[in-house]
Amino acid sequence: MLCRFATLATLFGVVLLPLTATRSLPLDSHRAVYARDTTAAPVTKTKPSITRTGLAGISSATTDIQGAVYFFQTDHTSPAMMGYALYNLQPHQTYSYHVHVSPVGANHNCTATGGHYDPYSVNKDAATYKCDGTKPKTTCELGDLSGRFGSIKANGDGVAMSPQLFTDSYLSVSNMNPVHGRSIVVHNGKGDRVACGNIEDIAN
Ligand SMILES: [Cu+2]
């Protein structure tokens, strides 16, 4: 128990503390930030390690699932990095997760999020759609995160952490094919939308 939460806390600490540290920096002109260092106290001489963030706090109206899916970029020319931590999943169950095109509905309605984000219109026919993670641009909806990077697998405690930070060279936080303003939906093995959350900036 302790171990499980300690691990979660560590993961969130690693990701969230640097993000929080950049709160006061405008997202779209990091050069401008350095130029006005003289008026800021305390003065930061080092380049912020993370400049663009998208965090979806995941929760559910129908289950106890909670957690987060996060994206960050060190600058607008670097690929986005993506990871997740989820808990209160069904032990040993497998879940899929996607970027959906629209935000979550007012009463935490995951259905309001619409379909998967597919900016290259790859999915012409749901019956034959098959994502090959090695060819994301031509075979995957870019929002098909489980198709591209692998499914979420809960451990015996119902916890799932991304086994690594995934490098996403096709989605960005807020530039080309942006995830900002969209949502993450987690589906169970039957495809039901069991949890969701909006992808929001936490660094402005
Ligand atoms: Cu989905």
UniProtKB/TrEMBL annotation:
Keyword Signal found? yes
Q: Which GO terms describe its molecular function?
A: metal ion binding
**Domain Superoxide dismutase copper/zinc binding, chain residue ranges per copy:** 65-197
Keyword match Ligase: no
Q: Which domain of life is it from?
A: Eukaryota
Q: Which residues cross the membrane?
A: none
| Coiled-coil region list | none
- Which N-terminal stretch is annotated as signal sequence? 1-24
Identify this protein by name: Superoxide dismutase copper/zinc binding domain-containing protein
